[in-house]
Specification:
Number of strands of chain B: 10
Mean pLDDT of chain B: 87
Strand content of chain B: 5-15%
Low-confidence stretches of chain B: 411-420
Number of helices of chain B: 11
Largest interface: A-B, 141 and 138 residues
Shape of chain B: extended
Oligomer: heterodimer
Strand content of chain A: under 5%
Low-confidence stretches of chain A: 1-7
Mean pLDDT of chain A: 93
Number of helices of chain A: 16
Distance between the termini of chain A: 32 Å
Helix content of chain A: 55-70%
Largest sheet of chain A: 2 strands, antiparallel
Distance between the termini of chain B: 77 Å
Structural class of chain B: alpha+beta
Order of helices and strands of chain A: HHHHHHHEEHHHHHHHHH
Number of strands of chain A: 2
Strand order of the largest sheet of chain B: 3-2-1-5-8
Helix content of chain B: 40-55%
Structural class of chain A: mainly alpha
Radius of gyration of chain A: 24 Å
Amino acid sequence: MAHDTHHHHKESFFTKYIFSQDHKMIGKQYLLTAIFMGAIGITLSALFRMKLGWPDTQFSILESVLGSDAAPDGMLDSNWYLGLVTLHGTIMVFFVLTGGLSGTFSNLLIPLQVGARDMASGLLNMIAYWLFFLSSVLMAASLFIETGPAMAGWTVYPPLSVLEEFQPGSGLGMTLWLLSMTVFIASSLLGGINYIVTILNLRTKGMSMTRLPLTIWAFFITAILGVLSFPVLLSAAVLLLMDRGFGTSFYMSDIVTSSGALDATGGSPILYEHLFWFLGHPEVYIILLPALGMTSEIISTCSRKPIFGYRAMIGSMLAIGFLSFIVWGHHMFLTGMNPFLGGVFTFTTLLIAVPSAIKAFNYITTIWKGNVMMTPAMLFCIGSVSTFISGGVTGIILADSALDISQHDTYFVVGHFHIVMGMTAILGMFAGIYHWFPKMYGKSMNKRMGMVHFWVTIVTGYGVFLPMHFLGEGGLPRRYYENTNFPMFDHFLDLNILISVFATIGVLSQLIFFFNFFYSIFRGPKASLNPWNANTLEWTTPLEHVHGNWIGEIPTVYRWPYDYSKPGKENDFVPQTVPLDDNEEEH
Amino acid sequence: MEGKFVIIIAVALFFIALVQLMKIYDLAAKVRGNKSQEKVTRGENMLMANLMLVFMVFFFGFIIWLIIKYGANAGLYKAASEHGEKLDWLLMINWYIILPVFFLTNSLLFIFSWRYYHREERKALYYPHNNKLEFVWTILPLIALTIIIVFGIRTWNDIMYNKEKGQVVEVYAYQFGWLVRYAGVDNQLGEANYKLVSSTNPLGVITDKSINDTYEEIDTKVLSIDQELKENRNANGDLLIPKSKADKKLEELERLKRRKYRIEAAIDKGESNLITYSSSDDDVIVQELHLVKDQPYTFIFRSKDVIHCPWLPHFRAQINSVPGMETSFKLTPTITTKEMRMMPEVQEHYKNINEIHNERKRRIGEEEEKVLFDYVLLCNKICGAGHSNMQLKVIVETQEEFENWIENNGDKKRLTFSGKEVSWSETKEQASL
């Protein structure tokens, strides 16, 4: 989109803040929506952790927050417990870490870092955001209906999710869930196509693919993964919708309800699992890669050192992206599928550990002999790498079909994926917010609060999820409303209290972030143009956002973005816009 | 209501306090002449770097404390099945590879962050890549993973490709409980079909009697719906009840007729029913799972309504139970319940569990009880409101004890489904004749 940058037309409030087609504004809109959804998501987790930590205590706060249907006399209802768990998972996975994370930063950073005036299609971009907004509203609304939200777990396996008779949440709540997800997928597809086209076509002069910052590579691969896998979830959702509403039986066969045998025959719930996880596993990397891309960028900038093994980093992201499409079966080792397939999926899944290990070692080598500025963003990156390692190694156990027999669906799994996917991505997202806040709002966030926020988050995060591995080793299944029906789990009572205490502190401590964020938008000190002395193009744009990003010509790029502390240079950074010296090697 | 009010006020006060603190902080910063929120001072850098080390120590300490306190199996003890021992061994191999990697890489990360914090006078090393180094850390994980993959897939094949047919036992899952069916002397389960499931035939076992019972049940329902519809029409044949309600009734009617038709077409073999479905004659349905030590078992799992997942933590065994399909798992128990209860670690553990259990009972005002170790089968796939209390008692015993139990319970608790009622011992005598 070739904008005439000198022609600065006056925008109304509506076109500037609401129906904006400017990628920076849309990025901020995604972020605000994600923060709102994130607040709901983590609050839900704090609420159901109360029940798990103190199974016999009545909390009047539960009744006042959730209403007397969900928590009569302050005791959480068991159906509603599952509802909270389901919505927590759905919101965090899709709305915060997919829509929020990649929506915010792909929108903000892709045009700024590749040197484009805007996204390839501003209109599609705007539509994508508003679909995301609509789907968020639908999902949040399902918390307010009498029969409760979807309750079948975030994977909503049929037949549980098909008939209201099996659980009340499979009625209207589930319908809303499916509608919301359908809209969400449409949004994510529009967004994804836009990102891919922008990266491929709108790079500025000199910005070859191997001069792209790793953030852009990460967003690029993420968008491809999304475009290839989300349609499969859409088909899964549509078939489920038809099973629920139109009497088809794609996912159902041989089912008996209290009113007798159902007609449905010939379908299989396993079909749904295949379709779901064909998205579900790439989804993990859709969540993870943007966070890893941003940590690569921030770690390099704040260590004042080029990212180690730039090409290896790209290669491993591509490898991870490719492999992520052929590993979905490891979620289904125990569905009774052919044991031969189990072996195949074990093999492909464990292969992912190789590119992941390369990434981890490259991060560590980047920090080695660096000159590490401990900005809040950098702290979150270090945390993110740590959780990536800690959660990654336990993945090796779950990837092993044999070991999965005794670990599947226990708390070991919950601990594993919350550390590797949840924490790594959330910490990466925080890092991104702290790092690019000056670019988004032209203000600085308070650094001390950022530091406190980091330490509380990492301590409580590990405090919650490390002990869960041991619950899992003790055989405790996930999604249990209470563990007190089995005396064999009684020795976990105190550990569960510990987890709940950490969870409550962790959730409350996010108030520090919310406060810092909103306070700084309005009252924060004015940011400088290039606060972290970074090389990438976004820091060459004016502080005040202008439509078209650069006043005048788009800068030309002469080098890769990681020339930090290059020998023979006066400064410890050389922006991409600085031409190479006569006999300077690129890198 | 007051609760809500207090919470709102507390939250509001918290934010006001924060705003005030921020103002003070801003003012103090101005006085000190340090306005920038971007530049991290040397003191802050050092503090954060040191905190990295402190955190690492606590982080590792926490994990080591957890490992010491809960150990590898966190209260599941030694595996009580043949394949379970292999799995535990494999798990330990994995931990021995994984834990050093975990501690090593995490310490490198935190130690480097601590060692190389920002100082103005230092300059970072320009070190964009080193192919040798990258090659090394591609190959090393590959080697470690090859070991893990080879051991893993071998164990998996070992367990899953076990061709030996053990004693057949069916576990049937429903919202929210389990039923167990022993295959009897012929070691063959009688065929079952979901269309025959009823309160008297909970597993839908096909027998001449269950087919006829189902016909009768369907006919009765059809009649009553017909009757109801007739009563709700006036002389002209117009409906007196809302059309939607009538449609529902008609739909139900059609469904019942279809069901009957399908039974007639696909299941009912008429006079040869008695011969075709005779293998169910010696099946026994019970509500507890009793297993004989060292006896190989082949479990068949079916589900009535939604996906469940039978999970036998002590035996390290689980597989989904999916409506519309049969899944199977082979398992040989190696330790009886009694032997397990005698093991010192179990006794010590259960002393502890009894204390915790009864302390809770006292707290919530329930009667105290003595808890003994028991094997258990629980549901490990989200299945609805009762998911967390879907348990089946499992007992491993000697052959003798088992015979004794099934003799008494096979008759007493047995849910009759066959035309002729036979007890476990009678069928055994017949078979030996």
